[in-house]
Structure formats: structure tokens, C-alpha cells
Amino acid sequence: MQASDTDVASCGNSNAVNERPAYEPAAYAREHIRITPTTLADGRQFFYLDDDERYVRGELRRQLTDPRELSDRFADQLGPDGAHVPYPAPQMRQDPLTGDWIPMATARMNRPITTGPGATATGNPLAARKLGSAYQDGEVPDTDYNVVIFENRFPSMVQVPGVSNDTHYVDGCALWPVKPAAGRCEVICFDPDENGLPPDLPVRRLRTVVEGWAFRTAELAQLPGIEQIFPFENHGVEIGVTLAHPHGQIYAYPFIPPKMQTELQHTQAYWERTRGNLLRDILDAELQAAERIVMRNASWVAYVPAAARWPLEVHVVPVRDVLTLDELNDQERWDLAEMYSTLLKRGNRFFDHGDGQGMDLPYIAAWHQAPVHDARREHYRLNLQFFSFRRAANKIKYLAGSESGMAAWLSDTTPELIAARFHELGPVDIAG
């Protein structure tokens, strides 16, 4: 059975500020996933999501005590001179030229990096506790887990108790508004195997990951001041990943990020002009064209967009009109797990050194879903934007002056060529 009503209720936030429902598990999750909440030693929230039937049935229980001696996350800190200084709460400043909010979090300079040439630490804070050894400075209290979700120890955005959300101005000048970056950053670990890869996970485990995305989408929307929920995955050193472990992140922004602002402007303008849903019409047009469809099952369609920017880019969209991940039904969640597994496997085979082995593809998987409060949400539609910086087996697409300086994209390939390569890797119609 699923976690008790008391357990699930404690996952929410009592300061709900909108009418969207909090997380309610559907039939599969009630029977096959148990969510167990606890708190880490410094006060951060932590959730086990178990699909192991022994935990689901209650035969085994999770370790809920974090043995680390950590001070409260918001406690005063020692400065360079030994004096106590207040917790350095992240702030965000607005760019007057673009209107973009830029979060700034100095505490992130101290976060550990365990992979790549800039590694600063050994061990893996996302791994489970090691049997027979002193407890590492890791984030998981137990010696094993299925999926876990917890607040980031070094967040770019966080809601600090007692900090006013009032707007101030840099140097007292009205050109530069500044506010607390009062959002939330969470980590979702897909599996305890720190050497594992997401494509190698069984579909059932990815189904639990999908449940985690839905769970946190519903719950984070209850926090005051949150405007956008963004689950995403960075994978690979080339992408800039600082911890080698199968994991993703979930950001809850106190603003609508720039790319979503642009998409909402276009989807809203399209609705006002045509009374149609732009994302639905894009899907229908891609289905009619057919050439760029790379995968399809009962609930989802994956295609290379007609104006793809990246040398490998695929958008994954639901067949049914859905606004956010927590609105997906059980079948859609299963079909998504299956399609995501297939996409990751084919992505790893997309580029090849000539030995037929493919490679561990660096990628970003970004969930675009309707904002929490903005009225334009009704004319949006859930979609996953999956892309890679790699443009050949031995080449990376670096963002040069045009892309970085003017956001004017230059593509090294065509969407039709990307789709054609995917068609070589497997059939369009997959089971589901």
C-alpha cells in the first residue's frame, strides 16, 4: 500500500496559496510506490520513493535519522575574521534591458565537484551510506534506496524564514530591482548505483521517477510565491555536470523564466489570433508531415521540431491536452517511462565512433509545463525538450558569438537529417 494519509499530508505545505490540488497518488502509485518523508540533519526536506514491494508493503522501513552533525541550514555562519555573519540568502536582480531575473547565490561556490578536471572532492554525496564505514558527508541516511528527492544543500533559490520578500534597489537606483530568490531547488536521484546510467534503468524505475516529477510538481505549486515548476536533467561532463550520478533536479522559480516567457507570449498571441492551441497545432502539423516523427506510443509522440536548434534535439509531447506532469494519468505515466527509456537508449547510439558501441550522450532534458498562476497557462501544453551539445562523435557544438551574444542560432545540421538518423536506430511505433 501507499504511504499513510498522515505521511502524504506531511509532504505538503500548509501555506497553500492557489486552488490547484496537492499531490494525490493514482491507482498504480497507491499500490506500488511508497513515499516516506523525513528531514535531514540541517532541516531540509527529504523523501524516499520506494517501488521495492518490501517497503511498499511495510515489511521493511526506511532509516529516517540523518547521523551527520550539521547546523541548521539557515544558522549564522563564521566569516573570514571568525565573526558570525547571517546566512547568505540568495537574491535575484532584474536586468533592465530584458526584464530577466538573475538569481545570485554565493554559497554555491562551496558546493562539491566530484567529476571532471575541476573536481574538488572525493566520494559521492548522492550515493547511499556505505556499510561498514564511517558515514560520509552524503545526503541519503540509508544504506540503499530506490528513488529519493531532497532539497539541494547549495540552492540557487531558497525561501528563508523571516526574510522579507519586498523589492529593494541596487545602489538605491530604480533601474535595478532586487528581491530574495525565494524559490526552491531539489535533487531527484534515480537510482543508488553511482556508476549507473539513466538509459540502463528498468522502465519500472523510470516510472517511479515520473511519479516523483508529478509528486513534486503538485506539491511545489502549493508554496507561496512560486510561479514555475521545472524538472530537468543535466547529464555528462560536457554539459557541466558536477556530480556523476544518475539524477536530475527540480527548480521552483519565484518568476517565469525567460524561455517560458517567450513561449507563453507566442502561445497566447496564437490563441488570441486563431483561438487554437499553438502546441497542439504544432503536434498535429508534425504528425501530418510525418518525416520528423521519431517515436510514438499510445500516449506520447516524439519528434524533431521543424526549427530545431541543437544538432540532436527531440521534443516529447502527450497525445492528450495536458498542462502539467501531475495531470498525467497512470497509462500516460507508464507510456512516458517507456518512451523516455527508449529515447535515452537511442540517444546513446546516435553518434558512433565506428565500432557500433555508441557513447554516453551528454544531454539536457527540460520539462516545459504550464506556469502555476499566470492566466496564459490555459493555452499552454506540457512538453519535454531533449537536446545534446554533441554534433559528432568527436565534436561538441560550442555556443559562439552569434548564439551567446545575440541568441541568434546557427544550426550545423537540419531537423530532417536528425530524424533520419533516429529512424535508423529503431521503429517509430514502440510498444505501449
UniProtKB/TrEMBL annotation:
SUPFAM superfamilies: HIT-like (SSF54197). Residues 90-257 form the Galactose-1-phosphate uridyl transferase N-terminal domain. Gene3D superfamilies: HIT-like (3.30.428.10). InterPro entries: GalP_UDPtransf1, GalP_Utransf_C, GalP_Utransf_N, HIT-like_sf. The active site is at H247. Keywords: Carbohydrate metabolism, Galactose metabolism, Metal-binding, Nucleotidyltransferase, Transferase, Zinc. Its EC number is 2.7.7.12. One of its GO terms (cellular component) is cytoplasm. One of its GO terms (molecular function) is UDP-glucose:hexose-1-phosphate uridylyltransferase activity. Pfam families: GalP_UDP_tr_C (PF02744), GalP_UDP_transf (PF01087). Its cofactor is Zn(2+). Residues 264-422 form the Galactose-1-phosphate uridyl transferase C-terminal domain. GO terms for biological process: galactose catabolic process via UDP-galactose, Leloir pathway. CDD domains: GalT. Belongs to the galactose-1-phosphate uridylyltransferase type 1 family. This is Galactose-1-phosphate uridylyltransferase. The gene is galT.
